[in-house]
Specification:
Number of domains: 2
Largest sheet: 9 strands, mixed
Number of helices: 6
Structural class: alpha/beta
Strand order of the largest sheet: 12-9-8-7-3-6-5-4-13
Helix content: 10-25%
Radius of gyration: 28 Å
CATH class of the largest domain: Alpha Beta
CATH topology of the largest domain: Dihydrodipicolinate Reductase, domain 2
Oligomer: single chain
CATH architecture of the largest domain: 2-Layer Sandwich
Mean pLDDT: 87
Number of strands: 29
């Protein structure tokens, strides 16, 4: 699946798409054509090699006259390109975001925005996007304490320039010594072709794309912060706060225990005296009543309800919309013996989507074991 920018209109929708791709073992790639531009690739190499020194400031202009949109504002139309490049070059998410804008053609559509971002490393950036500009301009400027580099995507010939300006201090005052621009050579390749080739290569070799779903989510998170700030007349929005809210995506009562390596989806509720054991996966909007034990190595789908006193042991998979009634217990061994461990003989149990596990007495057991109850799903032939 190749998805053009943005991956979705809301982070919750983007997370669903990423989760679905992971669950189905599918390749999900987001359109980020500038991250495949040879000039941007060369710029990133120079930054990583220390040619620019410490990065101090980055700003980008993406300006034009029209095309005026009616279904999206300028922030969502133009800014994803610049946000993705900046996040790629810096390798970090911003601490704070502030976006200011104006509506001039359509009172409900923002035509011009300026976005400021502060990063944990101390780098500051701004992004100026507009479709109310007298001429087309697409520039990215990276300021380091050794060099400055300009990426001019509109220039028909040379697109990447280096400026080795120097600043001396004479009598404690800074005195600039400007130098002329030097053209930076790089391999000429068509970005769109490179992007498509990368997508095909990922499909053939089952590799994770450079601009995968998680990459798209990071850009979408920043866009949502920008939109929130824009609605608040430029108020500062903090990514750290959003991240903390995201991490609290499920509820677990304080009397319950969740081991390490347990994945729990958004909206799931875990009530009193429950225990989630390692390597267990519980997806979204599930309910686990009082005194439920799950795991290890259990997979539970979306919207699954486990009522009080349910026990789900190693090897059990419950697909979406399954209901497990009061005090239900799954077993993974047909004839358990405490003296002879049978971990290597565990039998896997799968309850299909919407299945209702039922209690059956297994009459194949020997007479003195007939009091044992084996829970199976009538929707399976297992």
């Amino acid at each position: 699946m190749f998805v053009e920018k943005p991956i979705a209109l809301h982070c919750s929708e983007g997370e669903k798409l990423v989760s679905l791709a992971k669950e189905k073992n599918k390749i999900l790639m987001v359109g980020r054509i500038l991250e495949y531009h040879p000039a941007i690739i060369k710029l990133k190499e120079l930054i990583e090699e220390g040619e620019l020194g410490k990065i101090e400031y980055i700003y980008s202009n993406r300006l034009n006259l029209g095309k005026f949109r009616t279904e999206e504002n300028i922030l969502w139309s133009f800014a994803p390109h610049d946000i993705s490049i900046i996040l790629d070059l810096l390798g970090e998410m911003p601490d704070e975001v502030s976006t200011h804008g104006g509506n001039y053609i359509n009172p409900n559509i923002t035509d011009v925005t300026v976005t400021y971002m502060n990063f944990p490393s101390g780098v500051k950036t701004h992004i100026f996007v507009s479709w109310l500009h007298p001429y087309k301009e697409q520039k990215l400027i990276v300021i380091g304490d050794k060099k400055m580099i300009v990426f001019d995507d509109v220039n028909p010939e040379n697109k990447l320039f280096s400026y080795n300006h120097k600043v001396d201090r004479i009598k404690r005052f800074p005195v600039p010594h400007p130098e002329g621009a030097q053209v930076i050579e790089f391999e000429e390749k068509e970005p769109l072709k490179s992007e498509c080739e990368h997508f095909i290569d990922c499909i053939v070799h089952r590799n994770t794309p450079k601009t995968d779903g998680n990459n798209g989510l990071r850009v979408l998170e920043v866009l949502e912060l920008c939109q929130e700030s824009l609605k608040g007349d430029g108020k500062i929005t903090q990514y750290t706060r959003k991240k903390a809210e995201k991490e609290k995506k499920y509820f677990a009562h304080e009397s319950s225990f969740v081991d390490d390596d347990v994945e729990i989806g958004r909206g799931t509720k875990i009530w009193h005296y429950c225990h989630m054991l390692k390597n267990t996966q519980i997806r979204k909007n599930c309910i686990l009543g009082q005194n439920v034990m799950v795991g290890p190595n259990v997979k539970i789908g979306n919207n699954v309800k486990n009522q009080n006193n349910v026990s789900i042991y190693d090897g059990v998979t419950l697909e979406d919309d399954v209901l497990c009634g009061l005090s239900m217990v799954f077993t993974n061994v047909i004839n358990p013996r405490i003296h002879w461990p049978r971990r290597d003989e565990y039998i896997k149990t799968l309850v299909k989507k919407g299945g209702l596990p039922r209690c059956e007495l297994n009459h194949s057991l020997r007479p003195h074991n007939r009091t044992m109850l084996i829970y199976r799903s009538r929707s399976l032939g297992q």
